[in-house]
Amino acid sequence: MNSAFVSSPTSEDRGMDGKPGRWTHSLPSPEDMAGAGYRFEGNQKVGGDIVVCDFCTMQAWAWERKDDPFAQHMESKSCEYVDSEMFRELHDKFLQKQGKNKKLDDMMLTPPATPTKKSYKPRRKLRFSPIITMYQSMPTEEADPETANSKKPVEIAVSAGQTRVVIQITDGGERGKLSVPTPTLSFLP
What proportion of the chain, given as a percentage, has pLDDT over 70? Predict the structure, then answer.
């Protein structure tokens, strides 16, 4: 323990068994509590962290990490210790220590820098794939003779995405015989 803390009139009190009481919190520290003018009561039955000021008999309990014992004690309007020079000096030291702790906490909470995005590759150019004949059919003799002899062009439509390709084949000869067809290729959006 700090010698100033032990010799201070606000140091920890002894427990019921005669042994020194133990402050159960790391923050605020026992030194900060003593500097704020509090003496540790150590009543384990009620809460375990009860403190009292010997000047104004103010009591406080249920301490949390974020609590400021000096600000709590300044709420007491009639305390001689709060008006003293010693209280102001210790309060300034406490605030400086809190500022350093907050800077470290802020640095620890700062996320790492976001890496820059890689440049994107341009989209691949679309190309027509080769057409492979998988099955070739010829009309049989049982087919309707009117359909076989009609002069209407045969259309083959191929769609890919938003592009549609229509191939029209006009045949001047009989169906089933190889002749030189006249294909017409058109692109429709």
Answer: 49
Residue type at 53? Answer: C
CA-CA-CA-CA torsion sign (101, 104, 106, 108): negative
Q: Which pair of structure tokens corresponds to residue 174?
A: 């009989």
Question: CB-based contacts of 158: which residues, under 8 Å, 6+ apart?
Answer: 164, 165, 166, 167
Residue 42 tokens, joined: 């150590």
Q: Hey, which CATH number is domain 3-109, 1.10.1170.10, 3.20.20.140, 2.60.40.10, 1.10.10.10?
A: 1.10.1170.10
What does the alpha-carbon distance between residue 69 and residue 27 come to, in Å, rounded to a whole number?
A: 10
Is the C-alpha dihedral spanning 112, 118, 120, 121 positive or negative? negative
pTM for the full model? Answer: 0.41
Roughly how many angstroms between the first and final C-alpha of the chain, as a whole number?
86
